[in-house]
Amino acid sequence: MRSLPGTSRPGFPPPAPAAPPLRLLIADDNPVVRAGLTALLSDGAGTTVVAEARDGREAYEAALRHRPDVILLDVRMPGVDGISALPHLVPLAPVMMLTYSHETETVREALRLGAGGYLVHGEFTTEQLVRAVRDVREGRPQVTPGATRALLTALRSDASAHSDSNFLDASAISEPSTLSRLQSPMGQSFRSRFRLSEREAEIMDLIASGMTNQQIAAACFITEKTVKNHINRIFAKLHSTTRSQATAKWLGVA
């Protein structure tokens, strides 16, 4: 059909321009690890490595110079390590810890200082790594199972230690009447009275660690809506209306 004079023939809209690749900075003292990650993340995955660094100081300088979209940061590096550099890097770009370290205190400190994710080598595929980078860029935290287990272990240890400290000293429990009152709590966890399911207890541990709903969703591989539903049931069982109230009861300090 011929177009009328002075009109243009209708056509398909031009294709949307391809999104530019995410620009990454890799900080790791091991050149083999840096080379491997650069190869993985610069091979048509929608990401590109714009800079590498051997320690925290180099990472900070490179971040100022290149302004990456995401920083991949190792924990243990000579000179300025990852944890020491983290507070200086977080204001410049989202930071994802990418490391072999899954010690409890290291994981907790990294998340406390603002890391948007914590991935342990050997616990993710290339596709999962690329997806995690994108999620961290969009503010969706990612935590691999090893790091999650470290957090849960620490929380349970803290709660157990606090519970033990609340018992009376040896001289006090020498009286038979006092001992009889203590036998029941000592035989079972003080948390059992809340009647939380296994999943609810896991989520309550993560709440007590200070994790946000987004971080909990990433750690448990569930949606934020599911996290919120669990939290509503947890609060009802703990007779709490805030995270701080629930945490205090869960850790036995209320």
Summary of the model, kept short:
The protein is an alpha/beta fold. It has 11 helices and 6 strands.
Based on the model shown, name its key terms.
transcription regulation, Response regulator, Tscrpt_reg_LuxR_C, alpha/beta, Sig_transdc_resp-reg_C-effctor, phosphoprotein, 254 residues
Overall average pLDDT? 79
Most strands sheet: 6 strands, parallel
Placed side by side, the strands forming the largest sheet appear as 2-1-3-4-5-6
- How many strand segments? 6
Structural class: alpha/beta
pLDDT < 50 runs, ≥5 residues: 165-188
Distance between the termini: 80 Å
Q: Indicate the radius of gyration in whole angstroms.
A: 25 Å
Number of helices: 11
Shape: globular
- List SSEs in N-to-C order: EHEHEHEHEHEHHHHHH
Fraction of residues in H or I helices: 40-55%
Strand fraction: 5-15%
